[in-house]
Amino acid sequence: MLTFIVRRTLYMIPLLVVVSLISFMLIEIMPGDYLTKLKTNPFVTQKTIAEMAKRYGLDKPPLTRYWFWFQGIITRGDFGMSFESRRPVFATLFESGRLMWTFIVSLTTMFISWAVAIPLGIYSATHKYKASDHTLTFFGFLGLSFPSFFFALVLLWLLVGVFNVGQHGLGVGGLFDNRFIDTPWSLAKFGNLLWHLWPAWLVIGTIGMAGLLRYMRASVLDTLSLQYVQTARAKGLSEKVVIYKHVVRNAINPLVSLLGLSLPNLVAGSLIAATILNLPTVERAFFTSLTAQDDYVIMGALLFFSLFLLVGNLVADILLAWVDPRIRYN
Known about the structure:
Helix 6 crosses helix 13. The chain has helices at 2-29, 36-39, 46-56, 62-76, 89-94, 98-126, 131-145, 148-162, 187-224, 227-234, 239-251, 253-257, 259-277, 282-292, 295-323. The chain has 2 domains: 2-92, no CATH class; 95-323, MetI-like (MetI-like fold, Orthogonal Bundle). By secondary structure, it is an all-alpha fold. It has 15 helices and no strands.
């Protein structure tokens, strides 16, 4: 297993190099650059624009700029400077605890989605074609069909316009109400944090939760038809033992394989939620850099998200070997 982990970790290096090149190429084919908005400003002279282009390296050929950027990563661990903030890329992306809040929002959302979807998928499969199964199926399809941005806007409208939570001293958006921002941690502040996080969990996790529910239901139904399940029932084992000891342990394997693939959905959902709900995450900093065409920050963020995905796939493979004793890596 250790050899497998080391080998997979080494595989990440060339993949990240390819991602960096593709990211740079995508940015290059975008119309305009960081200086485009300045060129339309009548108060900015052409001399100033030329000096800024030279300072940021925008006057050099694309491949030359990519090579200088890539060389800085290899030799000095330098991912470049932000055009907008004049600060290093990772300082711009991870300032004010953005990295910590990104992991907190993403990992808690994933945990809640799995903790809710797996039992509901098992219940739906074991109550096939009953009213409860049809109800869960309906809400599963509804969750898959709702766009994240629309769901976030509807949720905000319900909280502010319908329930008027502001009258009860509760804010919407951000991580804390204004009265808790600079105060030390307390039970009240933690409760206020949970109040601000649950809309993000709901918006980000709805699509993933609905998909997991459908996957788990289908996987359990497929496993229930296998012969060893019929044999276990013929031996007189209780239905509970048959389901949770024999069926679920095998039916959950395909979902563990999907764990790594679910991370991009979390990142995409976090981008929507962070923008609409005003969350200080890396995804929001990435969106800000996209609107400003801050090239190095965009490429640094894409590398971070790619690493996030690769690590998620590695964790999924390790968990798959743990839950299924038949799988061994040489």
